[in-house]
Protein 1
Amino acid sequence: MMQSRELTSSLRNLPKCTNRRNQHTVWSLSKPCATSKERVIVMSQQVVFKKNKWLPYILLAPQIVITIVFFFWPAITSLRLALYRTTPFGDRTFFVGSQNFQRLFASPQYQRSLITTLMFSASVTLLGVAISLCIALLLNQAVRGRTVYRTAILWPYGVALPISGILWMFMMHPTFGIVPYFFEGIIDFNFDWILNGNAAMLLVILTAIWTNLGYNVAFFLAGLQAIPKSLQEAALVDGATSLKAIRYITLPLLSPTTFFLLVMNVVYSLFDTFGLIDAVTKGGPGNATEILIYKAYKDGIISLNLGSSAAQSVILMVLATLLTVFQFGFIERKVSY
Amino acid sequence: MVITGCIFTILKEGNLSGGMDYRLPITVTHSHKLDLYCLHKIIRGRVVLVYQDFRIRGGISVRFSSKNLVALVVLTVILAGASVANAKTQIDFWFSLGGQLGETVQQLVTDFNNSQDEFEVVAFFRGAYAESMTAAIAAYRAGNAPHILQVYEVGTQTMLLSGAIYPVYQLMEEQGIEIDWDDFVSAVYAYYTHEGDLYSLPFNSSSPIFFYNRDIFEAAGLDPDRPPQTWQEVEEYSRQIIESGAAHYGFTTGWPAWVQLETMHAWHGLPFASQGNGFDGLDVELLINGEFGMKHMSALARWQEEGIFHYGGRGDSANWIFMNEDAAMMPHSSALIGSMKQSGLNWDAAMLPHWGEPYPMTNTIIGGATLWVLKGHSEEEYRGVAEFLNFVAQPEQQAWWHKQTGYVPITNSAAAILEAEGHFEKEPYQRIAIDQLNYSDPTPDTKGLRLGNFVEIRNVVEEEMENIFAGNKSVEDGLNDAVKRANQLLEEFAEMYQ
């Protein structure tokens, strides 16, 4: 965050240097355009530990220990547990090999959960990013009270996801919600998310998008401000309409931000939305909103089927790993900077 | 210069032989001195360390060095140890009742602690039933399980076969506490017995009863003193209520699976699952897609479509529909009586409706939770556990518990005390659950449910009920799918314990 803000402020004054802005590790602003003010943020200082060779390792140790205890150890335990079936109290344990996985993939419920997750994730990501982009484009224009709008749009991000789920649940509740109350008598507003699976899905998607809007918009705004105005102006002078300028100038130059946000939103919708589902629908009605992460929790913690839950966690782990590899591989190569 | 700071307000509750205030001057370094002030007070007959602070005296450049801190930590440990040394034997009790019910549990525990001075029961609220059970399992596997754990009825089979429990009947026998098991309400007792012996002590037991709104009945031109007795009447009444515009819907339901399928099967003398509802063996199959299940669910599905019935979600979430006077009737747990009293509605309650001939009218089954004793503690501690459970089962405590919460008293003598006090004349609806449970002697099909993976099975049944009510599946498909999925779970459970 910090980096990008400094970056943005410096780049506004230094349009010629923009082509270097994403070379994180080595970027330093080239001399001719760096004024004394900007020189402060010039980075890439290599610290060398000459005296004490162990010091860097000691400094790193807390982070490494935390990573091992809270990430690697549970991950390895899950891997091991996924190969066993065990009674809740652990008094009987059977090695079953890949049976937990076979049962999962053969189970219609798990297949449904996969599809549900796909729908949920795709909607939250694509809609969320698209809406945020529109809002960011609007907020990037010189309108009166822009700061107020910007602040307002950031607010929802400050609300914890389960809380915003409860907020929306109250607003949309078929019995006492304010939204059905307003629509009553005007149109036949039937949004019974307690029984109707599609309505429930829509509700959690909306809530997930709304809560993450601030985050997305903030990144888009930062990205937009990094795009030199001169390019836009040049296009407009050449006779492009403002829509065309957005299409051919802004969007391509914004693509690193867009891609970053796409990946972040996929991760968000896959893993962070657990609290939302738990607070609002608990996976129901039927299994309509039972996404993978919630199913892993439900099978493990509520139903005490630890083997299956561990197998589901392993699948999620693989998924997360693939996403990361994809992010690093794809973003670095395919997105034009 | 003096630096002061408060370490703890209450460090550790203990049972020292007398109260005291003291100051411990400790030389930390040659120039710095550390004083530790402790203040003990006698609260309710016990000595409690209420205040402790420290001062560091010395030169101006007083800094917290590691030495200071180590000295502090060492001191704290010594003091904590000293206060624990003479403490009462502590019994850990994990429970899952929140809000007003939770306060009632704490009150019960305090009453026990004040009634004797050997044991100290400490009650911890550990979240919802599923969470506290998971936490207790983790604690058990790590070797520090609580002594007493409150487990919901759907966890009974898991607990029973866990190998981690100390059966209550055995505990009482070995501790020489005589309990008249025949005095227990049979529908409650039967649910938690295994081969004739009680394995966990019933704590909070309720049964579904039929709540209705007197104002809506009157507005619809119905007699509020004559609630519906059959499901046919429920339909009739609902039509009249909807047509008169007195409410949007006829009725809704709390706890869909427990009320509409588990209880309804027992109420009509029918099995919910094979093998005597799972009491007689592990090769169990669900029987809810039989003739009765189809009939009842078809009626509900048809009524949902017509607006006579309105599905309001699982657990307690349908309450809003009734509280908001959108629906006139709602079968729900008798434990809801407490909330009903505070609701400001003009409500009343009656026995559950019945389909009539050819089905017999038998008894309802309970829901709620029991207290399980876990293995791995000392003889002395188990003596305390037995004393506490005995205290809970006393008629006076049960009568008090019932009045506070609406859960049914677990012994007949407790009911007799309430009767003698005229409690049921003042609050006749408090009697309904007890009457239903005692309506007939429990048959093998109506004494309770003993299914493995029951938590998941109830979820599965409710999911399929939702699919039926939403119109995603036909009644037949929905029930068949529920049975198929549940049987799979039962089979998986049996595999592990054979």
Note: The two ends of chain B are 73 Å apart (CA to CA).
Protein 2
Amino acid sequence: MTRRIAHVGVVFLVLYGLLFFRLEIIQVFNADTLRNHPQNTREITLVFDEPRGFIRTADGEVIAHTVAVSGRQGRLRQYPYGPLYSHVSGFISAENGGSGLERTQNDFLGGKDLGVRLQDNRDLFIDRSRTGQLELSIRHDIQLIARAAMAGQVGAAVVLDPATGSVLGLWSAPQFDPNHLSSHDLGAVTSDYEALSSDPNQPLLNRAEFQSYEIGSLFTIVTAATAIEEGLRDFAVPPVRSVAPREGSQAIVHDAGACGGDLRSLLLTDCSPGWATIGTTIGREKLSDISQRLGITAKSPIRLDGSPKGALEAGSLNSSASYAAVGEGLKVTPLQIAHLFATIANGGTRMQPHAVSRVLAYDGKVLKEFAPDPLRQALSKETAAELRQLLADNVTDGTARSLSIDGISVGGMVATQFPDKHSWAVAMTPVTLPGLVVAVLLEDDNFSDQQISEANVAAVTRRITEAILRLPSFKVGGS
Amino acid sequence: MARQRVVELTLLLLAAFITVATVTISAVDERVAWSWGVVPYLTGLMVLWAVTHLALRRWASSSNGLLFPITALLQGLGFAFIVRIDPELANNHFAWSVAATCGFLLVLKGLDDLNWLQKARPYVGVVGALLLLAPGIIAAGPGTRGSSSTIDIGAVSIAPQQLGNLFLITFFAAWLSRYRSRNTAEHLGQVQPLDGDPSRFLPLVGGWLLISILVIFHSDMSLGFTTFIIFVSMWWIAAGRMRDLAVFLAAITGSLVVAAGSIAETKSIFAAWIDPWGNPELGNASIQSSFALAGGGLTGTGPGGGSADLIPGATDLFAFVPLAEELGFIGGAAVLLSYLLLVGVGLRLAVAARTEFDTILASGIAIFFGAQAWASIAAVVRFLPPTGLSLPFVALNGSLLVTCNIALALLLKVSEAAPNVSERTQLLPQISVQIPGDQ
């Protein structure tokens, strides 16, 4: 009997050993993943009424700060510009967690980061609340331009500085007023939050960063890049009107009749059957390889520095090379599109997009500086230069003519995605050494005519680009 | 031997210190709603421990000195976290602690000889089965719908199932020790599976029936699980026949398949267990506890620094979560080790016990503690689907606290009766040196 009691003892030892390791996995090995889980709002909920630093734009406008109020809590988070920065700053709420920078930069703002908590030597001995203040790369004037140009539209606009990856403006519509969610009137907050989260237009969703859309014919610039790297730049496609990738599947058709020629004429006429032909010539492997390098099918879609990972699935290329070459079925976020064209603008080097440039101490001293962060050389400088030339030609003679601005060279593309009712436009300027990339996505439920949609999205994009170039304080090619 | 009592007192003081320290540290945290009204209850808890210790000195002076301090530490930690989460619950916890101590003293003083339990086994068995099945039978009666696990008498709600389990442990111990001589390999040798007295299948059939009723008709998987673990382990210790065990496991699996097919809600509970993030409604408690545990990390947030308010059932079913969040992985592992130690000491006492009945009873009780705690924590860390089992001694679950204290008293009685307790229940085996020629 003693031996069998020992059996039972060993079984329990093993069972408890399993629990021990399971607990270790949750609390130690997987802890970071769980802490940064998109559904995990407890850290920000717990610091709701604690001291918190302010957030200001690159040109000094405060967009979020904590003020003293009378009452039990004593502090209230306020957003002076209301909905203008709702998808940048996000919100912080007593019961509904938070979003945006309030959430992703919580450690700095709330003083949890060690560098923020211990700002000078005395802090080692006195337990006082230190907070960090954020200075953004986003500019107030550019944000105002984006709002004016996007008035009445549903969609997103991203303005990037391609050389550093700095986000200069980030707009997603519809917006919400974060002041309503950070209020101390919890009943009102709950009803507001429920109204916002059940709204079919999803005003709480940051479309620029967290919503994927079909890439449409914008993908052909990636196909062009692959063709150039494969030495196919002079490859002439015989005139073709439609291509059927597989027996029984829908054909890729060019509505305006047969088209073909070299890469330049394919791009300028938006000749999808021609691109499909090139795709079959190159093969899906090469396309997939380059998309991977450019980060449009990467495991986790590119985010602003510090944004939670895992809320979005990675896009994937179509399994057939000809469909893949025209971007069929591939979904990307507006930020990814801005990032893709910024990479081309920046000579093929991918820069991590970031919105926070510095963390400041209570006395304005710089605690942490976010330097430009090159991710990798995705394309060669020569390929990037050729692509820029193609994009510039596309604006002067091709489908993106409505993006052209007097007196300065612009490169860009316009695309519509009919079944999904959205349209894209991207502009970079000046073409020789771009200092500005503007990507715009518009959702259009009344989408009826491709021409009107393209004209519309191109007009919005051109307005943003032109207005930024006219800003007296904006110097193209290094701000 | 008084040596055991000295060990007990020393460890008890340590447990008291840890409890007071935990309560104090969490009281200092500004986010905790502290109330001075907790102090009398804390003092009262210490007084109960002192009374228990003195009673052991008087009525069971040579019983094991490790068991009570371990359970006291767990109870003290439970108290500290319950008042940290809601000071209003302190009087509830204290009332049940008084009841538990009364139950403990009653068994310790009133039960002179354990053999009496063996003689009264038919009554013990019937009472046990009734207690185990009562809530389910009442819930199935006219006018009520669904499965309820508690019986409400006035303002007090009682869950007698675990007490029923304890009675059944006693009954099984008596039955198995009596039938052992006719049915074990030791006594019969390696014979054909169907040889020997057919009555040896009786315990297996009885256990199978009982567990099947729990699982199929009461749809109480968690209770069925603990009863199953206890029964199988006790039967294995007593009989130890591989083939009979295999047949029994097959029969239980059959019942489980029937149960899983007949319960509609099982499917969604399972889906929420596999992927709580995709089922935030049902999986909310799992999600919140995973986040809380991860927030605690290796060293924890410190008592009072955690997020217990966000966890549903943090004082009962998920009592382990605030503990492991605020004391960290280190604290959680210490609690795991405490239970393992409890099981280990219990099984060592079983080995050293005087009679076969004592042996099987002690191992049954040790397994009861171990299985209940394991299943409760396993559900919290998503090792098992949500079980509805509370953490013994820690959780604010009065019926379980009373049951566990009675079980503890029985275990101490076994160790009291065992010969040579002080040598045989030490944690490390003693090295005995045989001197040649010395007999």
Note: The beta strands of chain B are 151-153, 156-158.
